[in-house]
Design a protein that fits this description.
It contains eight helices and ten strands. By secondary structure, it is an alpha/beta fold. The chain has one domain: Glycosidases (TIM Barrel, Alpha-Beta Barrel).
Length: 269
Amino acid sequence: MACKGAKHAKALAAASRVAAVQPKTKTAEEAVPVERLLFGVDSEIQANDILQNNISMFEWVIRNKIHPNFWGRNLLGENALTKDEIEFIHSKGCKVAAVYNDSGEKQTEEQGKSAGEIAVALAFDLEIPQGSALFLDIGEESASKDYLKGFAEELIESGYAPAFKANTDAQFNFDREFSRGLQTDRELFEQCLVWSVAPTLSEYDSMTTTHLIHPDNWMPYAPSGIKRKDIAIWQYGKDCHPIEDDKGIETTFNINLVRNDKVLIEKMF
């Protein structure tokens, strides 16, 4: 894999420093029926962590849902994604969605580029292939259009697909800033994948009976500059199936859907 050498080495060092300090009602006609929805999860702990009942987190998901098509995992922080975990997930016939959480300010284009450099360096260290999506976790934080642009430009320059994981409800900042980006830099922002964490459906939040059920319609909130069909991933349920891990710490997983398998085939690794 090609790498920008010293630049990535510098970014990886920066990533190490960051790691050291980190610890609406819709009408029926708006619903988008989908013939095939693909299921996936994301979790804070590793998929191969052993739980109190002596099975892995991956096996726990299968026991309580269906086999996941992808698994979202953090590139940085406690319980970060590792090469061993990647190998484990792949051995189960599952893909990985890599997520980077930037703890710094998110206002300038330079700050966005810096976040992109660190995300790329972490991905390179894990041998994540170029072409894969790297999701920047925005959540409900304030992140300017310039910051999003800087991150996206850095990833494209480095050979990765820019992506954002955010609350797309209009009451939060991402809706406005991503839409502004589409107005000023449409060609760039149209290359960005969006992982919507809104709305989470109350009937799925913290549930313990996810068995083989999911929404019948594709209903994630979408920024005003795009349509629902353009959302790549929808996290519709959170904190499901609580259980203690082998150390006695309670853990859960979030549940997601993908409606376009090209996202899995082309952008997840």
